[in-house]
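Hello Y.,

Per our agreement to keep a running log of every chain we model this quarter, I'm adding this entry. I've kept the format consistent with earlier entries: sequence first, then predicted structure.
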Amino acid sequence: MSRRNDGGGGKTPPPSRCIFWVSDAPWHQTGYGITTDHLTQRMVKDGHRVYIYAPGALHGGKVELPDGRVVLSSNFGDDRWGNQTILYHLQWTAPDVVITWLDPQGLIQYGWSEHPTFMWNPVDTWPIPQEETSILGRAEKIMVCSRWGQGVLDKQGIESLYIPIGIDLQTYNIDSVGRKRWRGQLRPELSDDTFLIGSVGLNTGSPDRKAYGFEFDAIRIFAERHKDIRVYIHTNVEGDAGAINLYTLRKELGLEDVICFCRPLGPLGEGELYMRDMYNAFDTLLHCGIAEGFGMPIIEAQACGTPVVANACTAMTELLGHGSYGCEPECDMIVATSSRVALPSVTNMVDGLEWAYEDWKQKRVDRQKVRESVLRFEQDTIYDNYWRSLLTDIPPRIKLDGQRKLALATGQNKKEGFVHHDREKLWPHIDVAHDLTVFPWPWEDNSWDFIEFSDCLEHMRVELMQVMDELWRIIAPSGYLFIHTAEAGTWQLYTDPTHVQGFSLNSLDYFDPATRIGQNYSYSDKKWTIRKRTTDESGLAFILQPIKESVAARRKVRV
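Predicted structure for the entry above:
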């Protein structure tokens, strides 16, 4: 069954920061590029220094925009995320924060540097795949643009900040002149007595996220019932990455007189004014998507007064306003990432079109009310209410180059500037020989600014709490601990016969009171803050800081 849904001001700018923003270039007519353009302009107006890293935009180029923003790009041969070039740019820009505005699954080299990293995660499937979880573990903050997506992350114990996407409501508005002009350009005979269904979105992948196969089936059934309809689909018709060729599908379903497509230039080549007139021309927007991180076309259409018929799943469930229709999915399907998408019900999508058609036929559509229901997504309000506070709360850089550095269980690996430890003095660079299963360890309290503890924990036949408490004792209050260890259930754990225990990304949550596990369990009063957690090709990696002030405060209260 389908269900029908009838349903900030300026603040003090944050301190000036150097922001390294990763996304499409601000001149790209993509959702990424349009959002990048607005947000970074607002950041500059607030006094921030902004570098926009747009991999692939220029291939190694650099463009200084008149307002002070600098657009950088990756080298030839780099990937969509610019992983090979990112560290070079970070070294010379020295930003206070790195903010990624791309899907996180490809951010392989991001979050490893000392710079705090905020990652945007447009959650569109559930649950979050393991590989993506490990990448998000390197981020100090995770931003998600839907409450639904925030709930998905919360179920997996991942804390996130809700920051919706804003649109330009001055551009996307109700325009009767643009509506008439656009409909006339589409087909001269297209009168107001024709019910025009529109659809917007890239046709890519298999299964394609916009579910054009389901959409065409719904249109076929609906067109058999009503002869006064036409459909316009704004997409790359031939598709890519295994998607359906929509020219072929249109012919096979006998819809050549019903469906027309955009010009060969494609959906990425049109400006916002063209898109505004297009949305105004529609009598309803049909969106059968199986997974959406947000769904900007849904908001844009309603901002132009056009109601929407959408598959009621993921973020789309909270975007539908007055006069729009959410259609219950048919079922879930597991895809290649071992996460789920929601397959639309053709029957329910047809029902949604019937309701929209009847409202149109009876002249019940109040386009102004449709627009008013999405005014909360005004882009300047979104910036004022969400982004300013985010840019105020940037954690300090992780400094792993302290004066007092200890490398535990180093073996034959010699590290410049470190005091070296191992169980036995088998190599001349070993400064201290001690069995770490014997407590206390031979160092004073608060002795070290940085401790590297790599590939040792999995060998130790002692309780983890004892080890963590001893590390906490010898590290300075502002120090950092780096742990690398074997992941449970992997070859890293089982290949070495001396390994006795393995760990997961959440194993150290018990020591961090900010995590869900750390709030419910407490095996020690010696607490840590987990700054980063991730996986690499050889195991798990963590960076932690001790929380010592809180222990002192608790002891003072007891006295």
